[in-house]
Structures
1.
Amino acid sequence: MGNPFQDQLLKAGLVNEKQVNKAKHEKRISNKQKKHSNTTDTTSKIKQELAADKKRNQELNRQLNKEKQQWERLAQVKQLIEQNRLDKDDRGEAYNFVDENKIKRIYVSDEIADQLSRGQVAIVKLGINYEVVPVKVARQIASRDKKTVLVLHEKES
């Protein structure tokens, strides 16, 4: 026998061989169950961690997609302004407007100043500069980024 305590109990006659074998068998079964439960606990922890990682990755991907769409909209706005801006006239008439609670001034020809007041053209912001674009383009820009369009006089019906 492998256990000296069991051997002593057998010699003393307190237990018989059948009881010793039954105790060994129960011990072996309980050890197997402990190993199996540890494996199950570890597996469930791993599954929980993987699920948490997946959820975190999905959230990060959603945020990255949102930022990417914002950058794409800003790039479209910039492209629309650069392709459709009208010429400014530094010797022309000063046209005053408000940008972030500050009065700004842009010099335009008399014709463009008249078109600004009638709502045929608009003033938009490109970086730190201001550009004049046709009203159709200004509406396209406003659909992508409303803060970029600074002056757009709507025609009254």
2.
Amino acid sequence: MIYRLLRFIFRLTLNAYFRRKRITGQAKVPNDGPLIFVANHPSAFMDPIAVGLAVNRDLHFIAAGEYVGTGLKAKFFKNQLHMIPVFRPSTMPGDTHKNKEMFEQCYKHLGQGKSLLIFPEGNSITERRLRELRTGVARMAIGASKANPEVKAVQIVPVGLNYSDPHEFRSDLYVQIGDPIAIDDFLAMSDEREAVRSLTDLVSSELQATVLHNEKEHYDHFLEQVERIYQPHLREVMGLNEDDLQGGHVIQKTLISALKHFDRHQPEKVIALKTKTETYSKNLKSLQLNEESLNELKIGNKAYEAIGLLLLSPLFILGFLLNALPYFLARVIVQALKIRDSFLGSLAMTIGAFSFLIWYIAGGLYLGFNTPLSWYAAAIPFIAYGLGIFALKFGGLASRFVLRRRLRQQLQDDQESVIKTLQLRQEIVADLEELRLAFIDDEELESAQTK
């Protein structure tokens, strides 16, 4: 009951927290039989919520024992939130003997055809790469299948969580569900250690295919710069619109592959491009601009936009007033807490979810008992939520409209500097286009040589 209720609440919360959200591969998830879902872990407890809403199965979550706790808290987490504690040597070395019970409980669930969610990286770090996986998933899948031979063998389903920035409100989330991994061949291997190692390698490879994986950390910022500069051009070339998160994900993965290729074969080109993008970023900063604002500059304002914004502004004001208090309260609470970076987004989303829920229910009850609305006040939470979503979208459109006006004024005030920066941007795009075509040629050549 509580699990289903929270699932409903967090579905509404995710729709509000993320500006755009896309899930692909849902049809790949089997409707029955034991499954272990595996996912990367960039954003603490936002990740299990995202996976839980992306797949069409009820999940039991393997969670760190220190968060599950003991006593009534542990009982609530286990029974109502479907959590199964795992005791890590790094945080709870005195309790690792309890992991035997954890495996037995997982075998029992899988033997009943249920589904588990495991984050095999072991801990949460916000970065665009898949870290080395622990062997627990492979051991559990093989062990559960051997412990329940009468049940269909466990399948492992990779789920890639790709956030534009999980800690930024109104960012983007793209979830890619991969093909289920059958383990029959690994069950037949005589050497169980080798089977576990080989299956772990396969899971890592399949999960890596669903996420952005940049092996070299020192290129992270450079890649982000390249994506911001080059994505609009690539989207135009490929016929993709701005809201196509799947297409954007393909572009990002291609850029990572191309960077890796040229870093290996022509590192001098990568260094030259990196230097040029750094200069460009400094120029933008000195002009108090960013890449997004330059993209807006191309769009321009139309008269009907101003009229539409003016006509809809009363609804925006109402939506803002109905939602301002819980929104700013959640922000104040998150800013006051000193927590790890990887927990920022998930904590903000969770605090926001319950702040809004309490606010909506309290408002509905107050109006129901103190005004002529009576039972009609039960609709208040849904009206406030809908107007809140509208206010967020309206605010984004209005901000972009005002930004375009400011940019055009700035272009008039410092035309020479802006034009030079735009010319440098065009040079970078031309360089990137040249590298893209060279990368395609190299890929085709390598493919022909391997045939």
